Amino acid sequence: MTIEENASLRTLNTFGIDAVARRLARFDSLDQLEEIARRTTAFAERHLFLGGGSNVLFTRDFDGWVLLNRIPGVKVVKEDENHVWLQAGAGHIWHDLVLMAVANGWGGLENMSLIPGRCGAAPMQNIGAYGAEIKDVFTSLRAYHLRDRAVVEFTLNDCEFGYRESIFKSKEKGNFAILDITLRLDKKPNINVGYGAIASELEAMGVQNPGVADVSRAVMRIRQSKLPDPAVLGNAGSFFKNPTVSFAEGERLKKEFPDIVTYPQPDGVKLAAGWMIEKAGLKGFVQGRCGVHDRQALVLVNHGGATGSEIFTLSEAVISRVQALFGVRPEREVNIF
Ligand code: FAD
Ligand code: NAP
């Protein structure tokens, strides 16, 4: 375990924001986390757990404790004829877990290839991509309750997963440090190419009967072609969530904007926020040192040296332009500090 004072967070968040944490602690085991709880006042002060920093925006210096969860490791904890259960430490890199599953031919993670970040953050917003979400393979996680100082197990139902949501972003926000996650993968994978871009990419690759490795490769190729690499252009992926509106509201929008992109859901109509931002004329829009990405309008980018508050101000401009045009307010997906 290490503790630094007045530490720069610039390399610890994918926006590359140069904020300073009053205290920065790194731990790689439950014992070390308990030691932080015993020996410091971290949990009585302002604090925040950080994984890969790919879903956060620091709008100012962090006057408190930033706790880097680096609990490593992956192991098979159970296996039967059809499934394998993998447990991964919160600090394990998500994409490394995907690559391990793909290399073994285990299905369930391939559509979520190349999502940045660490395994411990994956349940926070029920990460998802290309028609798959972590909830589809999730069985349980263990988390440390900061006030009770006890380890608690959460099953799939306990996590209350929703679209980019979980209990850890709502009712239990700030109460737990996730320690490890357990996922159930398929030894006889169900390949899911229902998400348009995957099928066309596989076709372009000349693959006819895709396996998990082909799907993973297709997803990586699509992502690399349209998403900015944070190492080159600071960003946190989609800054906004796709809003879901009532069926009636969906009808109204369809009448007014016949080409609006919508996806029916059980509880309403999901709107493609990227399309709305583009329609509002903001794709590629630059405001000072930051802007809206020119290939994917859901992504805000740091063109170099932008502060978090500049990016936050840009996000407000995007929200109000979209709201003025469509009467629908996009919500931020990125966690603001
Ligand atoms: P961080 O940014 O470090 O943390 C995110 C939140 O979780 C914070 O509130 C933090 O306090 C909390 N947290 C982190 N670890 C813990 C822990 N162990 N215990 C308790 N709380 C914790 N997301 C998707 O869903 N789908 C995508 O396809 C996708 N694509 C992306 C593409 C790019 C280029 C980028 C930059 C981001 C993308 N994201 C995507 C967003 C992001 O990668 C995911 O949300 C990811 O799970 C965040 O992981 P992280 O370790 O970086 O979390
Ligand atoms: P895309 O394929 O251009 O699609 C645009 C939007 O339409 C997506 O946001 C997606 O919603 C929705 N969509 C497309 N096909 C759909 C279908 N068959 N059924 C339901 N919804 C559909 O999107 P993209 O930007 O290239 O991203 C591809 C995938 O990676 C998406 O799943 C996206 O969520 C994920 N991604 C997420 C982040 C992040 O930071 N959260 C960043 C990059 C990519 P959904 O977003 O609900 O899937």
Quick structural overview:
The chain is α+β, with helices and mostly antiparallel strands and 337 residues long. It has helices at 30-39, 94-103, 196-204, 212-226, 247-256, 273-279, 308-326; strands at 2-8, 20-27, 47-50, 56-57, 62-69, 74-79, 83-89, 128-129, 132-133, 138-145, 150-155, 176-186, 234-238, 244-245, 262-265, 268-271, 286-287, 290-292, 299-302, 335-336.
Task: Briefly note the CATH topology name of the largest domain.
Answer: Uridine Diphospho-n-acetylenolpyruvylglucosamine Reductase, domain 3
Order of helices and strands: EEHEEEEEHEEEEEHHEEHEEHEEEHE
Distance between the ends: 24 Å
Kindly give the count of domains: 3
Structural class: alpha+beta
Give the biggest beta sheet: 5 strands, antiparallel
Strand order of the largest sheet: 6-7-12-10-11
Level-1 CATH class name of the largest domain: Alpha Beta
Fraction in beta strands: 25-35%
Let me know the number of strands: 20
